[in-house]
Amino acid sequence: MKYKSSTIKNKWKKTQWLLKDTYFQKYVPHTLPFNQKNLSAMLNDYTSVFFKPTDGSGGKNIIRIRKIDSGYQSQLNTTKTSYSTTAQLYRDLNRFAGSRSYLLQKGIQLAKSNAKPFDIRVMVQKTRQGDWVSTALFTKVGNPNKVATNYNQGGTIGTFSKTMHGANFSSTFTSQLELELKRLGVAVGKNFDRHYKGFHELGLDVAVDSKGKPWILEVNTRPQIYPLKASIDKSLYNKILSYGKHYGRFK
Ligand SMILES: Nc1ncnc2c1ncn2[C@@H]1O[C@H](COP(=O)(O)OP(=O)(O)O)[C@@H](O)[C@H]1O
Ligand SMILES: [Mg+2]
What we know:
By secondary structure, this protein is of the alpha+beta class. It has helices at residues 11-19, 22-25, 36-45, 86-97, 160-166, 171-195, 226-229, 234-244, and strands at 31-33, 48-53, 63-68, 71-76, 79-83, 102-106, 112-113, 116-126, 132-141, 156-159, 201-208, 214-220. It contains 8 helices and 12 strands. The site of magnesium ion has 3 residues, from strand 12. This is ATP-grasp domain-containing protein.
């Protein structure tokens, strides 16, 4: 963890960086700070809303809220709770948050590969010359009973093309998406450089909805790669380390 690359934990700040650039607007799901007014507004507009700690990581303390016939249902890990009004839901979320800042984000219906929801990690790294390169693309395949696909939440690492195939996307569509995501990664790198100094790598979490549309869920400034080491894609792990050498990333 001691390698040289800046860290920004605040997801709200990073989302604002992206939204200042019109290029990213269609990729960023509607996101607002958590408060009662914003909760009501988001639940008016969307059937599913994610409640996430502004400085969170590892898929921890994320609650998915869904509209159901009798009101709303929240899910934390595998635990579901029902509410009949937004006021009751708000009270519980507020108690859960305590003094910690939270965000609300439009829920994306993740595409499923062999019945398991997944999202994509786009690893972007800066060369010694200062150019951003999307060096690796892999998937995080989630446990269908959980709300987050993270490795720490029981997710597994998958190969991009195999996971896309398992979700019934054609190989033509998959190659086009690969190009689009790699371009997106480079564009995010350039955007982040305009807002803060010292980034050498970034990891985009990109959801693909059931129609195949990509959505940036977050941009990690300290992306973990150890789960890749033991996966089928050891070659990707080695590629990331070869690009990471010049800024001191050795694992
Ligand atoms: N808006 C959303 N729609 C659908 N799934 C989401 C959404 N936000 C988060 N998730 C799920 O939760 C996981 C963790 O969310 P993320 O924003 O990446 O936070 P963390 O920093 O904890 O990894 C995502 O990889 C995804 O599986
Ligand atoms: Mg994440």
